[in-house]
Specification:
The complex is a heterodimer of chains A (about 675) and B (about 280). With about 675 residues, chain A is mainly beta. Chain A contains 4 helices and 32 strands. The chains are: A mainly beta (about 675), B mainly beta (about 280).
Amino acid sequence: MNSCIKQSLFKEKTMKNKFVFIAFVMSFSIKFYAQNIEIDSTATVGLTEVIVIGKRTLKNKKQVKPLSSIDDYLEQSNKITMIKRGNYAWEASINNMLSERLSITIDGMQIFGACTDKMDPITSYVDVSNLSEVEITSGQQGAKNGSTIGGGIDLKLQKSSLEKEEFNIGVDMGYEGNSNSRNISSELNYSNNKFFTNIDGIYRKSDNYFAGGGKEILFSQFEKYNVSGVAGVKTGDHSTLIGSVIYDKATNVGYPALTMDVSLAEALIASVSFEKDSILEIINKWETKVYYNTITHIMDDTKRPDVPVHMDMPGWSDTFGFYSKMYAKKDKHNLLFNFNGYYNKSLAEMTMYPNDPNENLMFMLTWPDVRTFYTGLYGEDEFLIGNNKTLKFTARFGVQNATIADDFGLNSLRIFYPDLENSKTRFTFNLSSQYEMAIQKTKLFFNVGYGERVPSVTEAYGFYLYNSFDNYDYIGNPYLKNEKSLEANISVNRSVKKWTFGAEVSGFYMMDYIIGKTDPDLVGMTIGADGVRIYEALDDATILTTNFNASYKIIPSLNINGMIGYNLGNDNNGNNLPLISPFTYRATLHFKKNLFDADLNVNGAGKQTNYSAYFGENETESYMVLNVSASYNFYFGSQKLFVKAGVENIFDTNYSTYADWNNISRMGRNGYINVSYLIR
Amino acid sequence: MKILKYILPILFVSTIVSCSNDNDDNNTDPVSEVENLTLVQEISNDTHTIELFTKTGELIQGYNDITIRLKDKTSNEFIENATFTWKPMMHMVEMSHSCPKSELVKVTGKETIYNGFIIFQMPENAEEGWDLTFNYTINGEEFEAVGDISVPMSPKKTVTVFIGADEVKYILAFIEPQTPEVAINDMTVGLFKMENMMSFPVVENYKVMLDPRMPSMGNHTSPNNEDLVYNASSKLYDGKLSLTMTGYWKLNLMLQNENGEVLKGEEVTNDNESSSLYLEIEF
């Protein structure tokens, strides 16, 4: 068991290691800010969608509660579906693609979850108190911060502006009846023309929730807190130095859809950046950031009754990185260059405790201490080619090396791949071009792109990772080729009098599509598993996503909007891919008069007929739920009190969606109240 | 030419001598030759002391890799040119018998140490125990030394005695890996036939089929194991043992003769959790 002890000490040791890669930070980047328009949370510009986190500004145009989780905010996006394994740490999917096919960053920083079972999407390590907005991009539009297939999500940290003097303190409180969820958050913002700081903290505690009909969903509780601080100093007429730290800690998180819970998910996310604007006539802005984040994730099954074998599954992920973005403008060209790099270390282990206490512990490395070193260069050029016609090209080139640093892990994988080398270098290319035109009140947008991604740590190096969705153990495949995708998107937006319409179609043709295939010769490790699947590359797969939205202004204070979406995903044999959304719809009647807002919202989905039985899906029934909410702003001099209350799932419908892991039922009727108080 | 005829052999011999002199300088240090070994015990007669070494400093039921040195009691010098035979004997209440063993031979390239293995198929108990007899010759003179040795029971099944379908009594012993790893390990076992109480010849050209399992993990098995086949040079059976995690592994075996007939053991299936022929490891 020496190795076990060694691994446990491992974390501490490597924390001390210093990486001199920062020396590589000699970079160029460019950006232009032509498109820096105030965007409403629902608006779509091209294929970019921006969700404003309405907490601070209280710009809650949508029915989101100020103290919603970040997951609730993301779920409002037309592009995003959240995959749920419980009531916490949902996993975002864009275009029916999950984390490994997306580029998800926090203010441009790469950060990788430490859980082999995807219980900690990186969105779980920030909270609404940290963020000002979320930028969601589809397909290759999301390659700005990293290579991607499905799209990108950039969670933007809240930072005050040095332009205006400000001092305010805010307190938010929220309560949710269904899960007895208590949320409190507070923040302090200060800025003058030399210095700014934003400090905030949030605490959430939630008990088990109850599904429609009153069934308690055991192991759906969680508790978390998050504190963050950002501070900026003006270092010259056109330059600012900004530092930020986020500390996020979740404990006692239940995952009712999985066989294990989490006793600790902890992240420290820190960065220092330097921004300079108006450098040269053509360079508007140049921002360089170095960052570090470290995640500890401890899975735990000690609270579960009847586990066949008790196990510990801790995981660690540390990332050091940098980026340097330069925004430039020359004639009609708006340019952005982003030179970025990171070094990530992912390690996860599993210790199983035999029922016979005299037997030795059973230990394996499930992520064999993989060190990933990536550097890439992104460039985009957007230029006007006439009246209201824009053309944009983007390209990203990346080099990525992955090295297995632990011999124990290397030897483990060599059981499957006897000639496996401990190091592998890959290259990725991402390209896209877009054409946007506006004719009177019609906006048209075309995009074609090509993208590549490298296999994730799990896909390449995972060792007996149990997937409760299809009940198989998964083994990584280090010889996978890069996954490639050809994509095309068309979107149209048109306003006619009181109507606006929008439609969007995206198609992805993917080559060497990475997915698990059963190896009949292998025997599962997890007790009760059906067997072992190895990640393999399908020759090709296709995904089609469509959505159509419309809104109509009935009278100035009453507006109705709706959205329907339909998606398809098939492999090369015409079989359905897993986790593809069925027909979905959403409609909201929104009333706003002076300081009063009210919403009546309905959303639902059709029966999921195109499911993948191979990956453990079954036909999910159709459902429809109804929500209602109302809010009011009270002003007392410069102070402001905002109260929002509502009821979700009014009819206490018992339902689950295609995106609910193992068909776990969603929350039943839930009454909530949020109160925000702002002192200026 | 005639001179050359004499000079060449002289040069040749002197080269060898000088080489071996070099070796002497490097290797005669008697301590360094047993550096990674631990003394188990000494067995003496009037003239000599035999020192027994193993890695652990103990003998145990099953396979034992044993190194010895022979010391002259009067000069305290180690004797480098002895030839040995050895005879382990189990003295039971009703009878006595020996066990499978290799020859005890001088280690190539070393000066003072002799090496061989013994497979004790049963442990001692309160009434019954092992002794070990050495018969050795130095410069034509014969000597004998006998001593009691302690062979406790192995905590895991590392040797098994069974009667095959051919009515022959076999002894199968686990030899390698002595330090198993989570990896594909080179595995070695020894297979012997019990002809009579004193004779345990090596069984050649059979096959030992291997199916390692973890009973604590729902009888999980590992991929890419290789059955054990006879290695004519070592006279042992070599295969590959893949271990996906640490812990207790039951190595289910089936013994097959040259004709492919199964002499002992059953296939592990959903209904049959283990073979009647097995060995165990834990790490």
